Amino acid sequence: MADTDARRQWAEQEIERKKRIIGRNQEGIAQLQAFLEMLSMSEVALRNGQAKKAGHRKGRRKRVLADYLIRALAKAGPQGVSIAEVTQSIEASAYKVKGKTKLSIAVTSELARQASRGDRGIVRVEEGRYGLRNIGEEEL
Hints:
The longest helix is centred in the first third of the chain and has 40 residues. This protein has a 3-stranded antiparallel β-sheet. The protein has 2 domains: 40 residues; 77 residues. It is built from 5 helices and 3 strands, in the order αααβααββ. Helices cover 57% and strands 8% of the residues. By secondary structure, it is mainly α. The protein starts with a helix and ends in an 8-residue tail after the last strand.
């Protein structure tokens, strides 16, 4: 009887172990899908020579506000997107504000900084509106 109980306990432990493995695999698939989405959206920056080659890194880089800005601006057309629309888009995403700075102020500051530095293909379209640089657009 003890032998049967031991086999049953082993089988239950194996089931739990397999469920944990499946859960990790599903998380990995979700991360890869998010990566593919970010890769397609960052094509503008890559074609404009803005992307830097990264060395070997352990683990996954945490997303920063600029990554969420790219996602929000990717949906904009040639007229760009207002700062308020970008802020609403980021609020709806998984981004968590760190510190005391309000999200709207952080978004405004980061958009201005990225546009002035020319990083990630972010450009100022007009007063209070930002977009992504066109792939075929010439550098000035």
